Amino acid sequence: MSVLPAKPLTVLGTATGAALLLLAAPAAVGAAEPSESVTVTPTGTVADDGTVTLSGTYRCTAGLAPVFVSSSVRQASDGPRRGIGGTLADCDGREHTWQNTGRVPAGTVEPGAAQVEATVMELRPQAGLPLPHFHASRDEDVTLTAAATD
Predict the structure, then answer these.
(1) pLDDT tens by residue, the chain, 150 residues
(2) What angle do CA 116, 52, 42 make, to 5 degrees?
(3) Domain DUF6299: where (predicted)?
(4) Which of 18, 20, 106, 135 is the least buried, fewest Cβ under 10 Å from its Cβ?
């Protein structure tokens, strides 16, 4: 008996379907434990070249797979969220700091008011697919300041 490789479109369709399922039903994927948290520092920085730096603290308990602190920023309530890096989390139940730096197209994020979303999440394998398990998530209004130039 021979096994044929999966067709690229079938694999892509399966991955797309899984992503849509996750977006449609986030509550079914896993909720944060009460002892887990994430905070966002009230200020971040943005450089002329579009480099954004955000930070805060997190606390999480042992994960079954690698856990990350991800962050995103947007400046208009209906504007796009722009991902700003990710940090590997140490889920030992103690509070730790996180800092993410990422580059967005220059001029798309500027000094001023912004909204930051920080999430502590792991991708747990379930039925052969890595599904997100959320340890903590938070939306915060922050002020972005111009990054110092050297």
Answers:
(1) 444 444 433 333 333 333 333 333 333 344 555 689 999 999 999 999 999 999 999 999 977 888 999 999 999 888 899 999 999 999 999 999 999 999 999 889 999 999 999 999 998 888 989 889 999 999 999 999 998 876
(2) 40
(3) 34-146
(4) 20
Report d(CA 144, CA 53) in Å as an integer: 9
* Structural element, H or E, at residue 122: strand 112-126
Q: Is the dihedral of CA 50, 55, 58, 62 positive or negative?
A: positive
CATH of residue 84's domain is 2.60.40.10
Tokens representing 84? 């700003």
Record the pTM.
Answer: 0.74
Q: Is residue 137 part of a domain?
A: yes
Query: How crowded is residue 53: how many other Cβ atoms within 10 Å of its Cβ?
Result: 19
In a domain, 115, yes or no: yes
| 124 strand-pairing partners | 131
